[in-house]
Give the backbone structure.
Amino acid sequence: AQSVTQLDSQVPVFEEAPVELRCNYSSSVSVYLFWYVQYPNQGLQLLLKYLSGSTLVKGINGFEAEFNKSQTSFHLRKPSVHISDTAEYFCAVSKNNQGGKLIFGQGTELSVKP
Amino acid sequence: DTAVSQTPKYLVTQMGNDKSIKCEQNLGHDTMYWYKQDSKKFLKIMFSYNNKELIINETVPNRFSPKSPDKAHLNLHINSLELGDSAVYFCASSQPPGLGLETQYFGPGTRLLVL
């Protein structure tokens, strides 16, 4: 069965510092990988996705992620965070024979402090 | 232009009542989904419809009944509401799965509180 693990439930960081939010998945077949961001009391917004091709994926708001098949990881990074990046971040996977079902990790709360 | 919209945004109701949440997308997608986000922010899929046909039903109590009158709409009806149904319900849509285009776009959510 597929599962997604986000290794940190909370990540506090100072403004302009780099950040990495970790995501590992388990699957015996190829998957598609996504990162979504949820600002307080709002819906989910797609940050970036990996479907195929280059393993380094660039997304919106200066975020990027690297797909590492051997380590089954898809960690999210940003070189310099802003206060406005404070939000909940979700890693998700899907397989193309499961009707598009997204399986989400538990979420990581990124808190950027001045 | 709202891509995926849900109504109502907030819903407060008593135990035992029946309520509906509506979802509409103007992205031209064939596939729509309902997800539930619990109090710990955990997201889990409930249902998926492709071109008005149910394709995913994830062990959800039969008090929950989705209805898709057309490809652009997927409504969720809940009978006999229970305290544990309190959550945020998200609608999403995408191109049909299997084409490599299945990025899901989410609505703003409906915050349901059962008293």
